[in-house]
Design goal:
Blueprint lengths: L2 H15 L16 H6 L5 H17 L3 H22 L6 H17 L6 H22 L6 H23 L5 H23 L3
Length: 197
């Protein structure tokens, strides 16, 4: 893939990202059961890009990260959710969520290959923030258990989407595309942090 093609792909991804609002953490109203849990993660663009980034980075790193990172995230996310349900104070939740998109996007864009434990720890730290934000909303759910199950399933499917895109790294042009997608995710994170997106 030529450099001009990479820039076109990045520009296209940025244009797609700009007009989408973030709804994941509205804190308004009662959330539903299983269907609510399945749809909630995909209505929050901040959650979508971070989950896709986890899958992208795992695929980019290869075995065993391709399956370990997407397993670590929901497991630790549940722990963060429990902290939110219990009302344990956690400052900077929305900043942590925005930073997850920035950092994970940059890991992909810059082709960072840390030791596996570092990658897993980084993903786990960000999972706490994502879990906490949704756990704080959970007591308002009509069926908290069904909502939680749906939420974890949807998160896993977003990881799988990132992995599917990340598998393009088998081809030279695919590596460039995946890295460009990581850059677009990082830019979206900057948008979340600045309040533009």
């Amino acid at each position: 893939m030529r450099r001009s093609d990479v820039f076109r792909v990045v520009a296209f991804l940025q244009v797609l990202a700009l007009p989408l609002p973030t709804f994941a953490h509205t804190g308004e109203g009662t959330v539903g059961g299983l269907i609510g849990g399945l749809t909630h993660p995909i209505t929050g663009f901040d959650h979508v890009v971070a989950m896709v980034a986890v899958g992208l980075w795992g695929a980019f790193l290869g075995e065993p990260a391709i399956w370990l990172l997407p397993v670590v995230f929901p497991l630790v996310m549940v722990a963060g959710g429990v902290l939110g349900i219990l009302g344990v104070p956690l400052p900077g939740v929305e900043v942590g969520i925005a930073c997850s998109a920035i950092v994970l996007g940059l890991m992909v864009a810059l082709a960072v290959r840390p030791p596996l434990w570092v990658a897993a720890a980084l993903v786990g730290i960000f999972a706490v923030f994502h879990g906490y934000a949704h756990g704080a909303e959970l007591p308002e759910a009509a069926d908290p258990v069904a909502f939680s199950i749906g939420f974890v399933i949807a998160t896993g499917l977003l990881h799988l989407s990132g992995i599917a895109i990340g598998l393009l790294t088998k081809w030279h042009w695919g590596k460039n595309f995946v890295r460009a997608a990581g850059g677009a995710i990082a830019l979206a994170g900057v948008g979340f942090l600045s309040g533009v997106v």
